[in-house]
Design a protein that fits this description.
The protein is α/β, with parallel strands linked by helices. It folds into two domains: 200 residues, D-Maltodextrin-Binding Protein, domain 2, CATH 3.40.190; 132 residues, D-Maltodextrin-Binding Protein, domain 2, CATH 3.40.190. Helix content is 46%, strand content 16%. The strands form two sheets. It has a six-stranded mixed sheet, sandwiched between helices. A five-stranded mixed sheet has the order 7-6-8-5-9. Strand 1, helix 2 and strand 2 form a beta-alpha-beta unit. The protein is globular, with a radius of gyration of 22 Å. It starts with a helix and ends with a helix. The relative contact order is 0.17.
Amino acid sequence: MYRKLKYLLICLTMGYFIAGIALAAGDEGFYKGKTLRLLVAFAPGGGFDTYSRAIGRHMSKHIPGSPSVIVDNMTGAGGFIHANYMYRQAKPDGLTLGNNIGGLILQQIMGAKGADFDGKQFEFIGAPSIDNQVCVLTKASGITSMDQWFAAKQPMRLGGVGAGGSASDVARAVQAALKLPIRVVEPYKGTAEIKLAAESGELDGGCWAWESMKTMWPRALETGDVNVLLMVMPKKHPELPNVPLAIDYAKTEDARRILKYAVHDIATVTRIYFVPPATPKDRVQTLRKAFADTLKDPEFIADAKKSKLDIEAVPGEDLQKLVQDLYKIDPSTLARLKEVLLPK
């Protein structure tokens, strides 16, 4: 009996080993000589583009067969053009990897115009970081504290990329929850354009991820030409210990719910990487592993540090669950979020 069990165990072990070799060989056979297109929903020079180009420089060596990786941009409609393309047109063959903003999924759940996709059908590969959302104003705006902002006679012009983009959604959530004087100006093609508009005086500032903000505006943040006035997260960031939290100004349960569902919960799924629905499961797993291995690659980490990119990896499996949970928000809360994030 013991010999039979031992023999069976050896056979099973050999079987798994051979299957693993076959799977790796199959992956290598598919990807070898091919090109993986990493398609970014926002303009060159912005935070999403910067992360994707860093990942694109290192991901190939972690995919069996070492395909070429090219990074392209497909901008417009605050990311909806990209999301619709990934859902409706991109081939589900494992050769198109999309990078878009997770807020669009909440927009689709709320029935946003232009959202011609079903977010829960995508296969999620991972995210390089959790976004810590902040709001900044330029020195030229004349506002350097929250007291001044609350007392401002004119609304601050904050740049947005359209419904579903953090720059728009965070600003609208803050306006609704805290009753701050804010006017969202949109659509810009990305945070890089918002930055340029603020520098020219066309805008007073914007709200988006600190991780992206500090890489794009390092000099202005150092000199005080741009000031971080508010953090829109449930807890403080160690690099911004003196910046107040929006939740501390929220006076009602409604205000706290708006900040939680519109900003806090979306922060984890902000920088999503995903492939089209019906992509073969083995290629999804190959890309998930390659993505995770890239984020742990010492050469990538060194590259990310040069670009001041923070890495706090979120596995694809975790993103898949988080996105599914978004579809379970109760109807009354969803109606309120729609009122705030999808203004008529």
